[in-house]
């Protein structure tokens, strides 16, 4: 029986190994010792003001003809400097932790220590011979809930987390009001143009008394916590007190209200790799140690658990916003890359399994981010190119979508594919569910309008100038990388996709006369990263942006475009891996799955599983050796397994397109496919594949599997069994 939880028999001494829970807005990180535990409180919208809240894109439209001329004349480094608008590099406002609740008690003997995360409920439990603590972040009541049952202890709060800036000032207070005991934390931000600060408030119920700025607890106690982030004074403490005081019920009652909203989405999909029961009973630390001892093979027990953990963490981090670079969690103030939403690979990869993995709630969170910023994307297009349509930034902190993060080495004003990639997830949701596109159709049309306006003709050929392949470029005459170029293949693919898709979803033919560039296969037989003669660059790079037409777009496909698919496969095998960052291996794995190379998928998964890239919570790191807390691998790994086992397009379903060596049998349940087909169950074993399909509408689907293919007629809501072997 598949295990939907992790447990550990050792405490987490560092916040990076903290067990995690979240409701898409509030996140908790539980770590520490039985008699000295720290529960870091996170909130999705906590970002440190740094003066960029009102930053806008550089005014370049009037200079764009000159910039294009410089690029075409080979003066690409000069063009890159102009594309910054003369600005220094600016970063988004950095995501940061809120504070930590502290639970301290007199030291005593500790026997039978165990900590658990239950993926089906979102509950983190710590227990030992002398007590138990349980907590979760409620989706029903929008609060964090903590139950203490450990005898006498003292509960406090601290803002002294690693890396706290000196300019952030905390105040702590414990007080009694109207017969209730509260613990309050206030943090005042520096005056840098942004939010005023934030306030965390905890109501403690039970035998509790105020003791200075902490609360003394005797016996069982219930704590409920919320976080408020006012844009300007005054603090809204009384309103928060009222919200907490109005919550009724004990811990189990509050948990019962929350669980249906969590368990339903989480349990839609499951994976069973036939792991022995003894392996499923192992603590997470032993699973990780066993994989580390055999880095050249995928440990099925760990892989199965990572699949479930990834879906749990992805869902838990998605609500008011989609997941950040660190999901919803952070225990120090030194977030790499500002802990923001990085949209040239990271966010996109984290969302890879949302639609096909039956988590429309995650896509809805992403849709909220896009809808709040699409006006800013329009302003970017006007300001930078004087064009209609949408130009998305490479990163956002969630406060706005203006494109201001630019540097001569990272000229994101020349990256044109962002809006196409970010909207792809929303269009895919339509393909999976059949729900109307609504305003998304208009946004897709605007992306096509943008490309229609910026496409030009050079020597009789369509061209995108300037263009950028994140985060690299072709060599210049001196052998140095010059990132600004012509016809980056990612931009070419986005233009081709946008123009075709806009016509499809709107029925409008106004783009019929717009001719995008073609792809280019280089002298090595590889899909070129720039579809422009003479453009060659560094093959030892973590990004594989030129494989965008393979994944996620499905434009280059072994069936429809076999020659280009072979060229894409050649490009994939030629590519080095620089620092073996997780997102690089994941994009490679997803592309390999689309190209039906299970061996190559496995090789890229081994780069992650075999390189010590998972913490004991099964949250991941950006680089080997657990370097840089980052959610890319954790959130995207389920999508890699899904794409290896089930691929779909409207009217076509492919079972086991890229089977992974060593996983000769198993069962996958609940996959929601493009084309409104659900694979209720897929089972495979040597020489046999069986699937149960269901569709809400009558349709004909061609099902492919090792051993053949057949057309099946699906009746509405009637399961259909198909078998090969």
Describe the overall structure.
InterPro entries: 6-hairpin_glycosidase_sf, 6hp_glycosidase-like_sf, GH95_cat, GH95_N_dom. GO terms for molecular function: hydrolase activity. This is Glycoside hydrolase family 95 protein. It is a single chain. The chain has 725 residues and is of the alpha+beta class. 28% of the residues lie in helices and 25% in strands. The chain has 16 helices and 32 strands. Strands 1, 2, 3, 4, 7, 8, 9, 10, 11, 12, 13, 14, 15 and 16 form a 14-stranded antiparallel β-sheet that branches. Strands 17, 26, 27, 28, 29 and 32 form a six-stranded antiparallel β-sheet that branches. α11 crosses α12 (489-506) and α15 runs antiparallel to α16. The longest helix has 26 residues, at 360-385. It is globular. The two termini are 26 Å apart.
Task: Sum up the structure in keywords.
single chain; 725 residues; alpha+beta; 16 helices; 32 strands
Give the topology.
Elements: E1 5-8, E2 19-22, E3 26-33, E4 36-43, E5 47-48, H1 64-72, H2 76-82, E6 94-95, E7 99-104, E8 114-118, E9 123-128, E10 131-137, E11 144-149, E12 153-158, E13 169-177, E14 180-188, E15 197-211, E16 214-228, H3 237-246, H4 251-266, E17 270-272, H5 277-280, H6 284-293, H7 300-316, E18 341-342, H8 346-350, H9 360-385, E19 395-396, H10 418-433, H11 439-454, E20 456-458, E21 461-463, H12 489-506, H13 562-574, H14 582-594, H15 598-609, E22 621-623, E23 627-629, H16 632-645, E24 646-649, E25 652-655, E26 666-669, E27 671-673, E28 677-685, E29 688-694, E30 699-705, E31 708-714, E32 720-724
Parallel strand pairs: 25-30
Antiparallel strand pairs: 1-8, 2-3, 3-4, 4-7, 5-6, 7-12, 8-9, 9-10, 10-11, 11-16, 12-16, 13-14, 14-15, 15-16, 17-26, 18-19, 20-21, 22-23, 24-25, 26-28, 27-28, 28-29, 29-32, 30-31
